[in-house]
Amino acid sequence: MFYRESGDFKTSYVEDNQTFPIKFDRYRYYFVLLVAFLLVPVLINDYWVNAVFMPFLIYAIAAIGLNILVGYCGQVSLGTGGFMAVGAYACYKLMTAFPEVSIFIHVLLAGGITAFVGVMFGLPSLRIKGFYLAVATLAAQFFLVWLFNRVPWFYNYSASGQISAPERTVFGVPVTGASTDAWASYMFCLVFVTISAILARNLTRGSVGRKWMAIRDMDIAAEIIGVDPLRAKLSAFAVSSFFIGVSGALFFAVYLGAVEVGEAFGITKSFLVLFMVIIGGLGSIFGSFAGAAFLVLLPVLLKNVLVGMLGWPTDLAAHLEFMIVGALIITFLIAEPHGLAQLWRVAKEKLRLWPFPH
Amino acid sequence: MNQISDEGYITADGRKIGAVMMEMKNITLRFGGVKAITDISFDIRQGEIRAIIGPNGAGKSSMLNVISGFYIPQEGEVWFHGKKRAPMRPFQVAQQGIARTFQNIALFEGMSVLDNVMTGRLTHMKSGMLSQAIWKGKAEREEVANREVVEKVIDFLEIQAIRKTPVARLPYGLKKRVELARALAAEPKLLLLDEPMAGMNVEEKEDMSRFILDVNDEFGTTIALIEHDMGVVMDLSDRVVVMDYGKKIGDGTPDEVRNNQNVIDAYLGVAHD
Prior knowledge:
Chain A: It comes from Thalassovita taeanensis. Chain A: It is a multi-pass membrane protein. The complex is a heterodimer of chains A (about 350) and B (about 270). Chain A has about 350 residues and is mainly alpha-helical. Chain A has a domain at about 25-265. Chain A has helices at about 15, 25-45, 45-70, 80-95, 105-120, 130-150, 180-205, 205-215, 220-225, 230-255, 260-265, 265-280, 285-310, 315-335, 340-355, and strands at about 165, 170, 175, 260. In chain A, the strands form 2 sheets. Chain A has a two-stranded antiparallel ribbon. A two-stranded antiparallel ribbon of chain A has the order 2-3. The radius of gyration of chain A is 21 Å and the shape is globular. The two termini of chain A are about 15 Å apart. By secondary structure, chain B is α/β, with parallel strands linked by helices. Chain B has 2 domains: about 1-95 and about 190-275, P-loop containing nucleotide triphosphate hydrolases (Rossmann fold); about 110-185, no CATH class. At the A-B interface, helix 7, helix 8, helix 9 and helix 10 of A face helix 2, helix 3, helix 4 and helix 5 of B.
C-alpha cells in the first residue's frame, strides 16, 4: 500500500536513473544508513563486533568485489583468498614501512596493489573461459599463499612467519592493535563498506558496467558494438581485485590483528566468498550484502539457538551447524537459483501490487 | 535508374545516392581448403540500401563478417570512405561507425531493453572509470545525453512500453526490433542487417520493412542487408548483389537482377504456369 511508484513521477533522466527509484526504498536506505552510522556504534559491544558486524562488513566488501568479476563480467574466479592475502600483506608492508602515513591511505594503496596483481592473473581470461579460467585463478590462489609463506621479506622476517598489525590511529582514535575500541573498528570498516558499495553501484550502472555485462551475456555481440574485450575484462579484474584487496587489508589489520596466510587466506576463503556471491545473487550489489549476511549470521544464529537456547554441548552443535548451513544453502539454491537478491526483487514486485494483485 | 556516375545516381523513387562509401575489392576468404568467398568485388554507396542475396551457403553471412571484422580475408582489400582498411578487430570496426544485427539474435539476455539499447552508445561514451565511480558530474551528464539519443531510437522503433523489461522475457519479433534499436543507437554510418526478417510473419515483416526504409530516409543511414524474402528484397533495395557458391553472379538494380539468366538459374527459378 505504501510501496508504490504511482504518483511518484520522474521528469528527468537523472531521476529515472537513481539507485532507488521508489520513494519508500529511498527512505529505507537513508534509515539503514542512519542506524548503521549513529545507532549501532553506541549500542554494540566486543562480542557483536567480532562475531557479527566486522566479518559481515569485511566479507561484504570482498563479495562486492567478486560479484563485479563473476556476477557482472562473467569471469569465474577462485583466487579471492589469494587476492585478499595480497591486500593484507601489502597493507602490512606499507604500515611497517611508512608508519607516519594514515592507515586509511594504506588500505586504499593495498587495494591498488591488489588491483595490479589481479590484472596480472586476469590476463589468461583473454584466452580461456568458464571452468578453465576458474582453474587458472586457482593457480593464483595457491601461488600467492605459497609466496607469502616462503618469502620472509613479506612477513618482515618474523620468527613465527605471522604478520601482526601495529597500532594505528584515525583522528587520534586507535583502529588497529590491541587497544582498539569495538565501535572504532566497526566505524572504520563501515566507512569502507559504504564507499565501496556506492562506487560499485556507480560503476555497474554506467557504461563500464554495461561493457562488463555485455561481455558476460555474449562476448561476440559485445565486440560488435565496440567493446574491447581485453580492456573490459582486465578492468573488471582490476576493480574486483581492488575491493578484494581492501577487504583483505581490513580483515588482517582491523579484524584479526595477526594473520598466518595459509590459515586466514586459504582456498576455503575463496570458496566462502564465492558462495556468498552465488547465494546472495550474481550481478547484484544488494546480493553481495545478503550473501555475506547469510553466511556470517547463520552460523552465529545457529550456535546461539543450539547452545544458548537448547543447551546442546558445544562440539555437537558445531558439527550440526556445518550440516544445517550446508542443507540450507542447497535448499536456497533449489528454491531460488538466482539468489537472495532475486527473492528480494520478487518480494518487492509482489509488494507493489499488494493488496490487489489482479 | 539513371546511369551511375562517381558522384552517385538517382533512384527510381527519386532518392539521391552518394559516392562510394565502402568498396570490397577482389575478396577471397578461405577456411582451410574450403573457399567461402571467391574473388568478389562490389561497392556500397552513401545513402543506399544494398541487398546481398543468394542460396544457403553462398557466402552472404561470411561477406558480412568480413565487413564487420570477424573474418580477415586472405586476399583482397576493404576500402572504407576512400581509405584502405587495415585488418582490424570487430570492436575497432564498430568504432569506425559500422553497426550490425545478427541472424540469430545476439542480445544481452541478462539486461533490460533500455540497457541493451544503451550498450549501442558505448562507442560514444568516453568518460573514464574514475569519473564513473564518482558518477555525479561528468559521468551522469554523459549518461543523460546518451539516454536522450537512445530514447529517440526507442520512440522511433515504437518500443517505449518495454523499455524496462528484461530482454529474456520478450517475444522473438520484439527481440529483433530491440537488436535493430541497439544498432541504430550507435548512429552508424553503415548498418549491416543479417536476415532482419527471418522467422517473422507478414505483419512483422511489414513493420520491419517500414523501419528499414524510415531509418534510411530519416537518418540517411546506408544499409546493407541479407534477406531471403525476395518480395521484400526487391521492394526495399536500390541495388542487389547475388552470390552463389562464394562467387558473384549478378549485381545491379532489382529489375536487372530479376532478369539476369544466371540469377534465375541459380536462385530465383522460374514460375511454372
